Amino acid sequence: MLNVQTVPPAKDILTPEFLQNPHRVCAELREETAIHRINFNGPRWALVRYAECFKFLRDPRLSSAGRMRLLLSRLPPETRSSFAELERALEMWMLFLDAPEHTRLRKLLNKGFSPAVAEALRAQVEALVDGMLDAEVPAGAKRIDILRDIAYPLPVRVIAQMLGVPASRHQEFVNWTNAIALFVGSPTTNEVAGAAQEAVLALTDFFCEIVADRRRHKGNDLISILIDIEEDGHVLTEEELYAQCVMLLFAGHETTRNLIGNGMYTLLKNPEEMANLRRNPEIVRMAVEELLRYESPLQFVTRVVKDELEIEGVRIQAGDSVLLFLRAANRDPRKFEHPDRLNLKRLKNDHLAFGAGAHFCIGNQLARIEGQVAILKLLQRFPAMRLASESPEWVPNFALRGLRSLVVEV
């Protein structure tokens, strides 16, 4: 067993090469052992196999709380206090809370994200995609950018409509969520933290105004629903309501756009499977599950150890942080047959793209529907579509994997 004196040196695996091709690195780590020591904003433990990721995503000894303090702890001590507002705002997100606070908020928000509520939005999503394709793709166009024209705007329009955000503010919201994403998924600097704080405060101010308006004029949007939701005598406080609205806008945009972009890129790199889906649109639900497994939008999630524990013979101290590599788990041959082969009809597909346990993504049903609709309509609208470049550029974000652009010839 390892002890504190024999902790291995941290590996520098999160490099520009990793951004371009994380699968090779993940495969090497998986083959070597289940747990590693790596550098990401300081030394962290990393779990890379399915069984361990699945188990410890559900283990209450690993905490979602305190992750913001961990990120900000890498900043120079003399500047860290400048970001107190960012820390306070993000630590109210349900995403960064443990039970019982997380349990209470989750029960309140679940009513706005049930499978039935999400499925009722399918027709609205279909109309949005049709309208975007008609408006953004000129007649006779030879090329389109799937990220710019569909994957970027669609999720923010859907969640913005749910939250009652006017169309004139959509681009602002994209810019603000991008700033938060860079803070969450990249090495922390004063500049990155400053941009994220400005974004969070601007979004909070916006939702403060929107909530006040909804209290005067209730509608059928998600904010009106959240204002009225009560469970076991609990309601959302004003600050909690602002914080969850910011979280939902961020989460609803960042991962879903990457599901669409990564999914389309994967299909374009696998033309036989793409043709199979075009011929058999009824398999689109299975297909999106496989695309989520094969090219996961979320590379890893972070937890903080509350009480000393042991993982695969390695003793982890309280206060240490652990990265659970969902991407590596989703290609683990111990769990998935031929994991590096894209199989849109894969029957047993218990991937971890949305996490597991108490923090399983609350918007998973809506993300799935947006992915199903957008991908299928793109395939049907452009039957001769092919990549304009074999090597598109990936966004420099180690946690949230997505493309800068995806230009195709149509």
Layout of strands and helices, then pairs:
Blueprint: H1 16-20, H2 22-32, E1 35-39, E2 43-47, H3 50-57, E3 62-63, H4 67-72, H5 77-80, H6 84-90, H7 101-110, H8 115-120, H9 122-136, E4 143-145, H10 146-151, H11 153-163, H12 170-185, H13 190-216, H14 222-228, H15 238-269, H16 271-279, H17 284-294, E5 300-305, E6 309-311, E7 314-316, E8 321-325, H18 326-329, H19 364-381, E9 386-387, E10 407-409
Parallel strand pairs: 2-8
Antiparallel strand pairs: 1-2, 3-5, 4-10, 5-8, 6-7, 9-10
Helix pairs in contact: 6-13, 9-19, 11-12, 11-15, 12-13, 12-15, 13-15, 15-17, 15-19, 17-19
Features of the shown structure:
alpha+beta, about 400 residues, 5-stranded mixed beta sheet, Cytochrome p450, globular, single chain, about 50% helix, 3-stranded antiparallel beta sheet
Structure description:
The chain is an alpha+beta fold and 410 residues long. The chain has one domain: Cytochrome p450 (Orthogonal Bundle). The protein is built from 19 helices and ten strands. The strands form three sheets. The chain has a five-stranded mixed beta sheet, sandwiched between helices. It is globular.
Order of strands, widest sheet: 1-2-8-5-3
Number of strands: 10
CATH class: Mainly Alpha
- Terminal CA distance: 57 Å
Helix fraction?
40-55%
Instruction: Return Rg in Å.
Output: 21 Å
Structural class: alpha+beta
Can you name the CATH architecture?
Answer: Orthogonal Bundle
Short characterization:
It is built from 19 helices and 10 strands.
